[in-house]
Specification:
By secondary structure, this protein is of the alpha/beta class. It has twelve helices and 13 strands. It binds nicotinamide-adenine-dinucleotide (NAD) and guanosine-5'-diphosphate-alpha-D-mannose. This is Nucleoside-diphosphate-sugar epimerase.
Length: about 350
Amino acid sequence: MKNALVLGGGGFIGGHLAKRLKEEGFYVKIVDIKPNHEFWSHDVICDDYLQGDLRDPRVVEQAFENKFSNNYHEVYQLAADMGGAGYIFTGENDANVMHNSALINLNVVHECVKNKVGRVFYSSSACMYPEHNQQDPNNPNCEESSAYPANPDSEYGWEKLFSERLFLAFNRNYKLSVRVGRFHNIFGEFGTWVGGKEKAPAAMCRKAAETDAGGTIEVWGDGHQTRSFLHVTECVEAVLRFMRQDSFMGPVNIGSEEMVTINQLALMAIQLSGKNIKINNIGGQEFVDKYGFSCPVGVKGRNSDNKLYKDKMGWEVSIPLLEGMKTTFTWINEQVKLQTK
Ligand code: NAD
Ligand code: GDD
C-alpha cells in the first residue's frame, strides 16, 4: 500500500491534499500542531493524525513513525507559520515566522534522510521573489530564474528562500529526492476566512457576505495592486503531477496566470453576493489611525509565470478565477450565516 505523510495537514492546502491522497487509496498520516482539522473529521482526510509541534525534533521523529517501517513513499512538507498580508506584512510576526518555520524545515529535512523517504515536496512561496521585479502592477516578473539576486519584501519570503536552499542542499549532499514548488496565493473552500490570517479572496468574500446591500467594504491599499489566485483543487493536482514525475525537482511556480487588481477581486465577490456594495480603499495615515500599523499591501504586482511548469509537466491549470470564487463565496457565505445564527 502506498503511504504518505502530510505535515501541516490540519491546515488549508494540507487538508485538501490529504483528502485527495486518501481518496486515491493511500495510507495517510497527518501531523499538525492543531488538535484536528478545522472543517474535516479525521476519517475523511487520514488514517492517522498526530497532534504535535514540529519545531520539536522529538515530535518530528515520532511524526515519521508508521506501520510500514517509517518508509514513506511521499512526504508533503506544508507546515509553516503563515498567513495573508495582514499577518506577514505588518512586521509584528517576523521573528516568530522565521524562527518557527525554519525550525520545522530543519527538523523535517533531516528526518526525511534518516528515514530514507521516497520523495519530499516542499511548499515554498512566490513571496521569495525579489521586490524590485514586482513594482509595476501591470508587468511583474516572477519567472523562476529571476529569484537571484535575492530581495524578498518580507521575512516570510526570506525564510522560504532559505528553506528552498536547505531542501536542495540535502538533495545534493544526501541524495534526498525533493520537489520544490513556489505557491502563488492559493484560495478556496475550507480555508482560513476570518481572524487575521485570511488572504484577499477569503477576506473579500467574507466582507461582501457580511455587508448589507447599500453598504461599503474596506479594501486595503489603492486597490490597483495585482495578484493571481489559484484554486486549491488545481493546486493539489499541480503538486501531485510535479511530485510524481522523475526528471525535474524545481523550484517551479504553482499558481494561476490570471492576474487581476485587488479591486477587481473585490468586485467579483460583490457581484457574487448579488448586493449593491461599494468599495472603500483604505491606506496611508487613515489606516494607521484606525488599526495602529501601516497598511499591509506587500508588492505592487505579482503574477505566476507558468512557462516552466507547462514545459516540464505538459499540463496547465485552467479553472477561471470567477469559477473558483463562486464556490468559495458560497462556502464563506454559509460560514458567515452559521456564525451569526
Ligand atoms: P495553513 O496555515 O492553513 O497550514 C499550515 C499548517 O501548518 C497549519 O495547519 C498549522 O497549524 C501547521 N503548523 C504551523 N506550525 C506548526 C508546528 N510548529 N508544528 C506542526 N504544525 C504546524 O496554510 P496553507 O495555506 O495550507 O499553506 C500550506 C503551505 O503552503 C505553507 O507552508 C505556506 O507557507 C505555503 N504557501 C501557501 C500559500 C497560500 O496561498 N495558501 C502561498 C504560498 C505558500
Ligand atoms: N488579506 C487581505 N485582507 N488582503 C487585502 C485585504 C483584506 O481585507 N484588502 C486588500 N488586501 C490586499 C493586500 O493588502 C495585498 O495587497 C493583496 O490584497 C493580497 O493580499 P493577500 O492575499 O493577503 O496576500 P499576498 O498575495 O500579498 O501574499 C499571499 O500570497 C503569497 C504567495 O503568493 C500570502 O498568502 C503569502 O503567505 C503567500 O506566500
